Amino acid sequence: MKIKFILPLFVVSVLFALVSFTSSLDPQYIDISDVVIIDIPENVKAIIDNKCMECHSNEAKNGKSKMKMNFDKLSNGDYSTGKVISKLDKIVKMLGKDKMPPEKFLAKNPDKKLSSEESKLISDWASGQSSMMKGE
Ligand code: HEC
After folding, report:
1. Entry pTM
2. Could you give the number of structural domains in the chain?
3. Does residue 17 form part of some domain?
4. How far is ligand 1, taken at its centre, from the CA of residue 101, in Å?
């Protein structure tokens, strides 16, 4: 009576173990189709070109700022979807705290300060783009 019940249970658990074993042996890979190309609206792009690209583009001299945020990579498919979303959220955060462009740089280049309209335009775009990509 008992064995009748235990045997199928045993078979099921062996099958289960086999399945999880084989799936843990699946090769790991990076999905290169995860490419996202973003078309930054012209009015937003104009501000970024003028006030951010000096430090945040492929041509930027400062390695750190370029590594942290590169608008060329953000728009041309060099960042994964996840990275694009996290960078967009960082933009909103940085501009919300008035942290970009950096104060030190603004002391020498006051014309590069974002007006509140410009800051809002970039933030609104970044948060809208991020929400859309998160499927919100
Ligand atoms: C003078 C150079 C300079 C300019 C101009 C500048 N940034 Fe930055 N930015 C930096 C540096 C340096 C960092 C890295 C700060 C750190 O991590 O200490 C940074 C970091 C950031 C980050 C954070 C990225 C991350 O993942 O942590 C964002 C977002 C950002 N900048 C957005 C902007 C935007 C938007 C503009 C234009 C309005 C701008 N920056 C203009 C130098 C600059």
Report:
1. 0.81
2. 1
3. no
4. 6
